Amino acid sequence: MLVPKLITVLREGYRFPHFRNDLFAGITVAIVALPLAMAIAIASGTTPDKGLFTAVVAGFIISALGGSRHQIGGPTAAFVVVVFGVIQKHGFDGLVLATLMAGAILILAGLLRLGTLIKFIPHPVVTGFTAGIALVIFSTQIKDFFGLDMTEMPADFLPKWWAYIQAAPSWKPAAFALALLTLVIIVGLRKWRPNWPGMLIAVAAATLLAKLFDLPVETIESRFGGIPSTLPMPVWPSFTLQRAIDVLPSAITIALLAGIESLLSCVIADAMTGRRHRSNIELVGQGIANIASALFGGLPATGALARTATNIKAGAHGPVSGMLHAVFLLGFMWLLAPLAGLIPLAALAGVLMVVAWNMSEIERIRHLARAPEGDRLVLVVTFLLTVLVDITVAIEVGIVLAALIFMRRMVYASEVTSVSSRSLAERAETEAGASAFAGLDIPKGVEVFEIEGPFFFGIATKLADILDAIEAPPKVFILRMGNVPFIDASGVEALQSFIEKNQARGTRVLLTRVNQPSLRTLNAMGLIDKLGPDAVQKNLVRALAKAREIIGEA
Predict the structure, then answer these.
(1) Strand pairing class (508-512; 536-537)
(2) Is the pTM of this model over 0.90?
(3) Cα separation, 429 vs 157, whole angstroms
(4) Which of 172, 254, 382, 526 has its CA 20 to 30 A from that of 549?
(5) In this predicted model, what pLDDT tens digit does every residue of 42-86 receive, in sequence order?
(6) Phi and psi (nearest 5°) for 551?
(7) What's the distance, CA 54 to chain centroid?
(8) How far apart are CA 26 and CA 263, in angstroms?
(9) Domains in the chain, start-ordered, CATH in brackets?
């Protein structure tokens, strides 16, 4: 259903107590979002005002047009790696074009009802690239955390740390002290006063100390200039076909990441509130928000889990709180722009260190460390590729590797076992509902095998092994398929090859207990015609009776 949650909430009846709750939640989230928006923009390799533009424009639209009652949107740390890389490669104009194209991709995905498919991305992949992003964010903040003198910052992870080691003698005690103070205040308030806006208080305290004691530290104003007090006018980015082709891989990455992050945030919000989000309209809302953010010179946006959780804990009733949070941020820009320029970059580095720790997924990594070997491999590979190569490559390789491991597991989950007269008698004695097997005898010249699990290309080798193991070909081969949930095109090809080899040896093949979906597939692909009349029997009793007829005819 492509109806925004805002419409649903208004139809339910929106009264003053609801507005009061949304008003309080909106200002609470705005206070949390203010330092984060600027810090994320700086970590992404651009100016802090871009983060504020994104939080205001995209934040308003995501709440107004999205599919969650409580989703708060804006710039998030998950995009830091992607945005930094796009700016390095294509410039900020390239990022704007990629964000606009990503918005179009998200809208298309929502209209095509692809929202539910994103949920099938394996957890080890999501945990791996999230933890990798956390480490990359941590590494980008070392310069400002210690106040290092560095003219150039390498983009790659290992060269970056080598540059830090070389610049280590230039560290500044004042910057380090402010960053450490910011960390201590945030962590302390989170433990002792969790309802207080710890990040804003910490940044305000560091800014006040830097100003009072005239500390020799870099500030937003000294590096980037002042913060504008209003939004810029929307501007359509320069567009050529070749430039669009150049940034398309980045646009796809942004769209995929925005979709994953927003829907994960929606799922967690649902778990906290007992509500249900609408994934497809959420993608449409995210797409429109990213297009709008690009037009206003902002960054990619998605659902922000920490801000969404804050919104819920503050008592928000519906999407109006998210819309108000954007309005309050615009008000903060108008009133506090001159003061924002005084914020030390070391304080924002301290904020992002906390964000990186929150993103690190330590508990989930510990949990996955006890998972099967294949899941651990996917986690490690995705993590390392995110840190050392590129998040796009990490997600692609992680998903492909997870799919290959899944297929390998399915091969082992599918079994082909021999059925004998003795095993039928034992089954009649021990299994409920198996009394029909009592007294059944498999005549000489008949082989019965049972397939359990999905019938796909992985089963082909096992069927071939069966034929190779039988020295004297039987007159009738019965395949029991009652425990086959589905058969795909590759499985049909494997079965066809099995049938043709048996027919070449003068052996008839009978199938029993084929479910309706599998039977439709076999019919559609012409395999029933190849088997001949009466080749599909309802059960083993009838199949054995048919086999005796065939033996008698021979």
Answers:
(1) parallel
(2) no
(3) 65
(4) 526
(5) 999 999 999 999 999 999 999 999 999 999 999 998 899 899 989
(6) -65, -40
(7) 22
(8) 21
(9) 5-150+162-369 (no CATH), 414-553 (3.30.750.24)
* Amino acid occupying residue 219: T
- Gap between the Cα atoms of 179 and 39, Å rounded: 13
Over residues 513-536, the pLDDT tens digits come to 888 888 888 888 888 887 777 888
Are the C-beta atoms of 375 and 127 separated by less than 8 Å?
no
C-alpha–C-alpha distance, residues 543 and 301, integer Å: 61
CA distance 153 to 179: 20
The whole-angstrom separation of Cα 52 and Cα 293 is 10
Tell whether the torsion through CA atoms of 168, 170, 176 and 179 is positive or negative: negative
Residue of 76, 119, 125, 127 whose CA lies nearest to 363: 127
d(CA 49, CA 93): 16
Compute CA distances 198 → 29, 185, 270, 354, whole Å. Answer: 12, 7, 25, 11
Residue in the block written with tokens 């093949």: 509
| C-alpha closest to that of 347 among 170, 224, 220, 227 | 220
